[in-house]
Amino acid sequence: MKFNKERLGLLLGSLGFMLPLLLDLEGLEPAGKISLGIFMMAAIFWIFEPIPIYATSVLIILCQVFLLSDKGVLVSYISVNGYQPQSYQSFYATMSSPIIILFLGGFSLATAAVKFGIDRNLAQIVLKPFGEKPAYVCLGLMVSTAMLSAFMSNTATTAMMITVVIPIIAQLEKSDPFRKVVALAIPIGANIGGIATPIGTPPNAIAIAALRKQGIDIAFSTWMTMAVPLVILMLLVAWRLLLVFFPPATQRFKVELGGKFQKSKPALCAYLIFGLTVLLWVSEKVHGISSSIIAFIPIAVLPCLGVIDKKDIRGFSWEVLWLVAGGISLGLSLQQTGLANWMIGLIQWQHLGGFGLLLAFALVSLFIANLISNTVSATILIPLAVGLGAAGVAGEGFNVAMTIMVIAIIVSFSMALPISTPPNAIAMSTGMIESKDMVKVGLLIGILGLVATLLCSLMFWPMILKL
Question: Which of 197, 294, 412, 414 is deepest in the core (most CB within 10 A)?
Fold first, then answer.
């Protein structure tokens, strides 16, 4: 079955790439046709995964350099009607954009945190006040997981927390619904927690990169001011939903994460750099240093102090960086070749109105991100929203910045299926829950998250961004 799906994906992706070149698409120049072919191929490859999704992202950049750049093989073919091909360097530059550096800084901190037990110690500190009553232990697990996920990979956080609690869950009676509560609390906490900071999850980075191209530079602290209240609200909502669907039978439940703060020189350096970087990030508005520049502190200093070594660096999630870079590069060609404007011109968007467009993007984001990667969903939809705003056909009520934020955050609330996010898949692998358990909780969280996000975009975020 897997082999057939791969073959089908390769066939459809190849057809998607060739089709725009063979058709007479009125109003679309040669560069736009090539860009459309790359876009269709990428979308199909991301959905069917005949090759890894990060490989598809790098393939996008390869195709752009060879087919759309000023040094490409088709430069004479695409240079018509005054069109100036993009410099090949602009496509390569997406691999080292400020957003990529921001994520690298996050990876460096996360690696140091795991290596010296900062993650476990922080989780233990957060869990301690919640006591041993199952309902509050569940809340403590969600809060501690969300806090870690705000600065670490959602997947890594889930894997760490699941590893710790599974042996404890196994001690409960198999009929006790609290087993399901704990197994679901961790991926849900990780998915929601990733929304809280710009480095929490790749869709956030894709949104920030798109906003910067609109002349809107969101500080680390500004993003947190906008996102953290929503994260807190949805954590509480998800917590109550879990307890309603799976009321605990046990009376007491204690989680011991173990581990103590280390006192070696590398460990102390790790604690210092971790604290300093986070402090500088959240106080960006005070000192005015960009979060991407601050992110270079752990990248450079941690190896210099021997806190992380080359083995640790090899363990970074480089595929995530490739995926984000490919998304940024795809958005670049959509805008520069006129493809985004052409696609937008196919629909009478002005009839939907400003809120209608925002709602449409929100619903599509929720639907697609439950079926494919959250990052891929954001990568496909955000450039379309940007193009719609740039074309100026949506009417005065359409706010492209708010739409970008809504897309980025709602895709993180899409967690109804085991395939929706890696944290969900990890939770399913424990054997403690079934797909139907995840669907009924995840679907409600997604719908309520969509409503909460729309309300924030209409009432709360404009006061912060002053848009």
Answer: 412
